[in-house]
Amino acid sequence: MTGLLVQAIRRPWGCAHFCIMSTLISDAAEDYNDLVGRLDISCISFLPISQEIEKEIKPQGSGLVHPPTASGGLHAEVQKNNSLLVFWHDPPKIDAANFLIKVWETQLPSNMLYEYVPASNSIGLLFKNLKAYTNYSVTVTDYQSGKWVALAAVSSHTFPKQPDAPSFSGSTADTLVVTIPQNWPNFFYTAEVLTAESDSLPSRRTVACNATANACRFEGLRPNTGYRITLQNCSQTDPLLCSQKSDESHIFYTKPKEPRNLVLTNITSTSITAIWMSPKSNNQTISKFTVTAVDAVGNGTSQIVPSISSHYTFEDLQPTTWYRVSVIACARNDDCGLPAEATAWTLPQEPSNLHVYATGKGQLACEWQPPSKRNIVDGYQLSLHDGVGFTLQQRKDFTATQLHTVLANLSHHRTYHVNLRACFKATDTGKSICSQGVNAAATTNPDPLPFTIADRTATSLDFHFTPYGGDREHFNYTLMLKGREEKFACDATKARCQVNGLPANSKIEASLVTCCKHRLCSLQSDLVAYTKPLPPLDLQMGSPTDTTIYASWNSPQPTTEPITGYRAVAVDTLGGETSCTPSRVSKARLHCTFRHLSPCMPYHISVQTCARDDDCSLKTTGKENTLPGTVSGFQMQQRTSTNMSFTWTPQSMEACALDNITVTVQGEKTNSIVSHCSVKQLEAANNCTVTGLEPNTAYTAYAVACSATTHNCAYKTTDIEVETLPGVPLQINMSEVAARSVVLKWSQPSGRQDGLSGFLVRVYERSQDGRRSHGHSVSNCTTTVVDVVDDVNTCRVDDLQPSTNYSITATTFKRHPRDGIIYGDESEAIDFTTCHPFPIMAVTVSLLFVIVIGLLFAAFLFRHQLRKLASRLKEKDNTTDMSQPPAPVAFQQLDACIESLDSNKQFISHFMLLKKIAVTGVENEFHLTKNAGLQRRELNRYIDMLPYDQSIVILGRRWPRILDDPEPKITTTELLNNYINASYIRRPIFGMKGEAMPCDPSDPPNYIATQGPMSTTAADFLTMVYEQRSKLILMLCRCEEDGKQKCKEYWDDECELMVTSATRSVKVTTSNVHTLNFGLVRRTLCIMPTNKTEPWYVTQFHFTQWPDCEAADMTAFYNLINLHMKFIRENPVNRSCGPPVVHCSAGVGRTGTLIAASYLLERLRAYPEKMDIFGTTLAIRRWRPNMVQTWFENITFVDCFNGYAWIQGVLQITHAHTFFVDNSKKHELR
């Protein structure tokens, strides 16, 4: 059956509501579900919800009514809200007028709700606005035979009522809880959640609600996210009936996640710092953080922190208090999540009034006060650190009642740092929590210093101890003697304690106490000592031989302690000792003889008085020298007509320190000394030659060895007989030269003529270069001696080759009965060439002969002058050296002293002694080295003129750094880049006797001595002047002397000059050039290194009248000294102005002379009583070697003072003008 549901408008029982329901019915028997699925229901409500509403369902077209029957099937289906759909299929054909449908509540059968007569073509009815969740019954009756007969019946429940939208109850980061608006009994509820985010599609989740709790809970949600929720209620009957879903709720948000990685740090007694990280980001941002710190009793503080910050510090907290710190992330309007929490204890406050002080040996006492009563203190923790590397030495724990302790076993006089912390145990963890430490430092007492006896005499004791290192002025040392109230202050610099006025040979009990500037003193250390016995008296030596020395002495005065014996010792210069056993000459006098001594040796004789166990007195000393031994192996080695060479067996310098060996030649019959020669043993020679003898003469010769230090001489050797060779023929000339022969003429030889036998003329062939072609003669001739002196000897030599080069000589000979023929020396060879057969060659040869003769005569005269000069120099070399440094000279005796040195020719010896002491004394005593100069050889003008490392000027170390660091140590980098051959020179200091001594390095320098700049070091030199802030340069040499460069010209008088080196570049501008008197030029130099911005102006005095290795003109020298000393007075050395720079060529000779002269002139003006010229030179050699380099400069130095004294009128020196007028002649004598 196919039909169309059409609208039926009726108002049974006052119904004011109608619906239009239409659908196409394809078959009356089709399935109910298909029918309902095709229903298209459109309702308009006119009645209150309590009124019924029906719809009539009719088939398509017209026909009879077909009421349902029991067999036809009546169906009822609950629709949305409170609607009931009733429909049927294939009803029997009945009279529609008798067809009636009734509807009522099943529980109230008497309460009929609907009675409806459907249209004849209806197949169903829809009832609306029924009660929710109510069981309704529906019957279809037919009026038959006067009564209503039930054809079919059905019942059905309406759905539960649709709930309202849920309300928000609460949330967490992953949970939402909503409240059920109406909680009906016997129902259960379900809720559905969907995301409300705009950037993703909705997703749904359904959960069962807790009707008892009247709430629905969603878990596993995303934090800080918005959601919408719907509700649905369902019956608990079977079948299950559920209401429609509620409308969607407002957007509900989950809470933000708690902050991440919360850490509490920087905890003090009153503050805690919280550090955290924001939760992971979501669509909703974090607007702020709420941080809270609450203690155990609920007292706390809270603070809002902007979302851009991730830390907060709580201030003004209580010490030793437990705090729970929470951080909450908030979004939107105070929508905050769960807190991130951490707990911590605030620290105790520090202990107060910590006092640490030294007590006892190696101990420190510590005292302190507890912190305020607000703190919980269970104990204290003390840490001890050393004062150097802050290394932990000790750690101790103390109870709360202990407020002091003593730290023992510490190092002596060392500063320690003590750190003290107050601690308590946390009640939750039991862990000890300590405050920040309070610090204090103290120094332990010095330890008792052991001391020993350094020296003793009969009336004094000198104790030695090792003072503490570092600042020696920090400590003082006091010596006390038992039985004496007096206390003796010790000298820390010398590490000595000296006590005088003690009885000889006595027992002394001494104690040493060490104290420091902190007023800390050690315990005393004790020592028992004895004074020495009195020394022997009146020691005398005499009668020395080459192997023995005799000594005698008197016994000292008796003492309380017995004398057990005497010790007599002779010590040579090599350290060898020889003793002798004394015997008594008389009751008071003893003597002994030292035997088996070495010859030519100084001996120091000492005699001591001894008591107790070899406890001997101070030495009574004397000095005696053994005589040198006789020269051995003496013999003549070689002879000529006027000279004789002698030789001997070399002597060991270890066995005998000889000064020289002198060979003397005497006349054989007269025994008068004719000539002698001498050899200095420092030259290590074992031969010498005696010159100036007469030819053909017999002599006797002997040798004598003389001591280098004692100036005594040994016994002479046995005389040996010697004889000179015959003399050389004189006035030799060639009278005739032919092609094959030559004629030679000469006069009698020099020297004695008796015993001469004849003459031998030899001709040698020579090559083109003048050398002899063969060692033997090619021809010769012999003649006898002519008795008459004035006669001329003639000899003709034949068998020569024409046009050949020859040389010819003549010699004298005599016949000796024992030695045979003895030939004298050959004459000087005369070169000639035999002639061609033509006469012109003879003329040429004659002219050449005349020229040669002239040259030979000139050579003879020159050689004679050389021999005279050599003899004079040897006489100077044979002068005796001085053995001891000369003492300061009284000013009244200065003139006599200079005269003595001059007349005895002692200036050279004086200078050589100065040179020796400077090396062996000054360099060794002050441990001076020259390593920097040796490593930078290429920057030194002379490799043997190097600066000391201990006073070197270092480029880059600007003035006045040397005043604060007076002993610079050059580093490897400075050695490679900043080396210069220059030295700081300091003024000597003078003792009570006027003796000059080197000052301390801490004294400021007065000069800088340096070498003349080279082309590779000129820029370095100018850089040094700039950095040292020197205002004066004294240049004492010419740029070139004797054809050699002495100094690179580092300025240009005409124009600007750029001076460069490997690492530096300096611009120099010259101005104000003035030529003064006495060869002095004054300039102003503007020095500007290219890496600097400000120039430096310096004045240069250029002294050009002082040749190298010569004495200066005194007038010019005085003028220079006066000018430069005036300049220094006007520009004194201070922290802003450096010392003058002085240079010559090597920076030691002329430079040292000027500096030494300046120092002594200052001394002369201030203290004219005594002058120490020698000591002043030694004192400045402490800072730079070889100052006052040559003996000529030494003469200039001495002359300067004699002349200065004359000028000032201090002394009336009658010959002072010679230093100015005839200075050069006087120096020749020195």
TrEMBL record:
Looking up CDD domains in the UniProt record yields: FN3, PTPc
Q: Cite a single GO MF annotation.
A: protein tyrosine phosphatase activity
Q: Which locations, inside or outside the cell, does it occupy? A: Membrane
Q: Which UniProt keywords apply?
A: Glycoprotein, Hydrolase, Membrane, Protein phosphatase, Signal, Transmembrane, Transmembrane helix
Membrane topology value: Single-pass membrane protein
Superkingdom is Eukaryota
Q: Could you confirm whether the keyword rRNA-binding appears in this record?
A: no
Q: Which Gene3D superfamilies match?
A: Immunoglobulins, Protein tyrosine phosphatase superfamily
What is the name attached to this protein's record?
Protein-tyrosine-phosphatase
For this protein, the record's InterPro entries field holds: FN3_dom, FN3_sf, Ig-like_fold, Prot-tyrosine_phosphatase-like, PTP_cat, RTP_Phos/Ushers, Tyr_Pase_AS, Tyr_Pase_cat
